[in-house]
Design a protein that fits this description.
Elements lengths: L1 E5 L3 H23 L2 E5 L6 H8 L8 E5 L1 E3 L9 H8 L10 E2 L8 H13 L5 E6 L17 H4 L8 E5 L11 E5 L1 H4 L2 E9 L1 H12 L9 H4 L6 E6 L1
Parallel strand pairs: 1-10, 2-3, 2-6, 3-5, 6-9, 9-10
Antiparallel strand pairs: 4-8, 7-8
Helix pairs in contact: 1-2
Length: 236
Amino acid sequence: MVEEKFFTDRERLTLALADECAAALQAGIKANGQATFLVSGGSTPEPVYRALSKRPLPWKQINVALVDERWVEKDQAGSNLAFIANSLLQNEAAEAPCLGMKNAAATPAAGEAECERAYQELPQPYDVCVLGMGNDGHTASFFPYAQGLDEALDAKSDKLCKAITAKQSAVTGVHTERMTLTLAAILQAKEIKLLITGEDKLKVYRQALLGDDEQEMPVRSILKQGLKPVTVYWAP
């Protein structure tokens, strides 16, 4: 249940994805009076967020929430909350409510219950979830062979949030302690959009489609779950 939308350049991808996200959020507001937008960090979706920030949507009725987070404060390098504040929560979107994951607990494991309570307050089903993918085949904070990954990938779980300790790599950097939405939570989204760019990530994506080992390439848990359609966006 994977649909591919491949573009000749990133500008066309950005415009198309921004249009589709805006339409989905507007539809959610029309149906329910509010919408929920799950967002990932990273440089790849940044142009989409900046384009969306200029759309005259009823942003006060759109709940923005993180897909995952490094266990760092907002003023520290690597904070996804800070990234979203600086890219999406600008211009027209400046007043959108935004739910982060980092709390006062010393570790993600200690803060998991509080994060869970906060995310349980979000209206479900979510309207749109934007995901990225790393060159190691991770998505959200589903890192290969990470501590907590099995629980995070349980599609039948009733948990929305899971603490993860990744194996340190060039992709994770020094921040191996993470909080992530579970696969079960992501599957609550009406629309799941996986955004990748460049030839290297296209090769990783193709490799993910060929195998089944989710520990090796956790993005497979999204691509092969068979419960919800996933749209993959790519440009060179």
